[in-house]
């Protein structure tokens, strides 16, 4: 069974940094684009960014450009989201998803930005 | 950015009755390969989203056949032929042809 497990969510102060991880199993990770999507409390889904199979292409929503970086380690079946200069509006559950269109999703990890 | 507009945003439905959700994109979602890249997701209360439909009309594995997707270009529809209690949740359309990917605002389906 395909699995995606996010981790790393935490309470962080405004201006702080956090690194999320997504570890996958039961599919060939290196064959797929991967995507991060977030959901603020009580709100809808927001696409954050995607990374190509080999990591050579990355795309981000404007609100996180220059602050967030997506990376991956195909030897470890892992996807990452480095989040810097965090703001209150970044508070959300962060999901990783397989592919550009989210065939499978993880359970999410909560990031809270607050002083 | 491509704007995805859903309607209605709230949809009370009687059990066993049909339901229909509309999604409109600000640009055509027909790609150069001829396929239409529009996806539908279901998010049940307290759960992660789950993709139901890809490329506008293809059901994902395990999705009941009471769910169907249709449309082309910029206008799309998700239909539930007979709503069941387990269908309660929020439904989103989403495009990933253009960067950044974008979701509709979500349509909340509830039982009357």
Task: Give an account of the 3D structure.
The complex is a heterodimer of chains A (115) and B (112). Chain A is mainly beta and 115 residues long. In chain A, the strands form two sheets. Chain A has a six-stranded mixed sheet, with no helix packed on it. In chain A, β4 and β5 form a beta hairpin. The mean pLDDT of chain A is 97. Chain B has 112 residues and is mainly beta. Chain B is globular. In chain B, strands 2, 4, 5, 6, 9, 10 and 11 form a seven-stranded mixed sheet that branches. Chain B has a four-stranded antiparallel sheet with strand order 1-3-8-7, with no helix packed on it. Chain B is built from no helices and eleven strands.
Itemize the secondary structure elements and their pairings.
The complex is a heterodimer of chains A (115) and B (112).
Chain A: E1 3-7, E2 11-12, E3 18-25, E4 34-39, E5 45-51, E6 58-60, E7 68-73, E8 78-83, E9 92-98, E10 109-113
Parallel strand pairs in A: 2-10
Antiparallel strand pairs in A: 1-3, 3-8, 4-5, 4-9, 5-6, 7-8, 9-10
Chain B: E1 4-7, E2 10-13, E3 19-25, E4 38-43, E5 50-54, E6 58-59, E7 67-72, E8 75-80, E9 89-95, E10 102-103, E11 107-111
Parallel strand pairs in B: 2-11
Antiparallel strand pairs in B: 1-3, 3-8, 4-5, 4-9, 5-6, 7-8, 9-10, 9-11
Order of helices and strands of chain A: EEEEEEEEEE
Most extensive chain interface and residues per partner: A-B, 22 and 23 residues
- In spatial order, strands of the major sheet of chain A run 2-10-9-4-5-6
Number of strands of chain B: 11
Main sheet makeup of chain B: 7 strands, mixed
Cα-atom Rg of chain B, whole angstroms?
13 Å
The structure class of chain A reads mainly beta
Series of H and E elements of chain B: EEEEEEEEEEE
> Which word captures the global form of chain A?
globular
Residue share in β-strands of chain B: over 45%
Individual helix count of chain B:
0
**Classification by helices and strands of chain B:** mainly beta
Helical amount of chain A: under 10%
Relative helix content of chain B: under 10%
Radius of gyration of chain A: 13 Å
What is the mean predicted local confidence, pLDDT of chain B?
A: 97
Q: Count of DSSP E strands of chain A?
A: 10
């Amino acid at each position: 069974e395909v699995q995606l497990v996010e981790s790393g969510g935490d309470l962080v102060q405004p201006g702080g940094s956090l690194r999320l991880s997504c570890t996958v199993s039961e599919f060939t990770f290196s064959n797929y684009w991967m995507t991060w999507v977030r959901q603020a409390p009580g709100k809808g889904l927001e696409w954050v960014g995607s990374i190509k199979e080999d990591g050579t292409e990355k795309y981000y929503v404007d609100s996180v450009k220059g602050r967030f970086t997506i990376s991956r380690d195909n030897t470890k079946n892992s996807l990452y989201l480095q989040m810097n200069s965090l703001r209150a509006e970044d508070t959300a559950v962060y999901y990783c998803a397989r592919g550009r269109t989210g065939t499978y999703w993880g359970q999410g990890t909560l990031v809270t930005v607050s002083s | 950015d491509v704007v995805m507009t859903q309607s209605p945003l709230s949809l009370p439905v009687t059990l066993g009755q049909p339901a229909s959700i509309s999604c409109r994109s600000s640009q055509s979602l027909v790609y150069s390969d001829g396929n239409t890249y529009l996806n539908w997701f279901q998010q049940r209360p307290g759960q992660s989203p789950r993709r139901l439909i890809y490329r506008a009309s293809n059901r994902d594995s395990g999705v009941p056949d009471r769910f169907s997707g249709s449309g082309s270009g910029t206008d799309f529809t998700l239909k539930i032929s007979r709503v069941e209690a387990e269908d309660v949740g929020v439904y989103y359309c989403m495009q990933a042809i253009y960067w950044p990917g974008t979701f509709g605002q979500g349509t909340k389906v509830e039982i009357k």
